[in-house]
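Take a look at this chain, tokens included, and explain the fold to me:
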Amino acid sequence: MAELKIGEKIRSKRRERELTQEELASILFVSRAAVSKWENGESYPDIALLPKIAQLFHITMDELFDYTLEYKPLKVVNEYHFGISLNNVDKKILDHGKIKSSRVAKNNGEWDSLVEFTSEEEDFPYTLQKHLKGRVLIDGYSMRIADGKIIDDKKPNKHYVCKEKVWEYHITDSAYLKSMLKELKQLGYIDDDE
């Protein structure tokens, strides 16, 4: 815990007001010795006196305690997760995030590298869209994280990406899901029975 510097603040403000220790003691109904002890860091004023001291010197209690609130704006980050076949994307996409895991598998008779890819870049699904090769549909999800904790604020958390469009919605939005599935059928990405 930081050392309290109330005594230094009292000394400084007393001198600004051109008061002696005796005069300050008289105003606060304490002894001159008490004021001397405060200023030398040997003791602290009684808690009931603190508001009176702050008011006398026209300062806030925070100023008396030499306290400054450290304001840190809440940083909310979208962490995107996509399963990606490296045969379906320009490899430059790897510059936009991290590979969490990878495996090699045969896909339609050809060996393919499949990766679980994460990114904290703003609007990553649209970056992924620009790096797609051919007619592929890639789905993923995102988590919104603030101060290391996952938050649910009804922002989009599910993503489908193809050359034509990016769909982003919250998993509970069934109306959007139905319209998205209809569009995917019309574009030929999914069959009627899927």
About this structure: The mean pLDDT is 90.
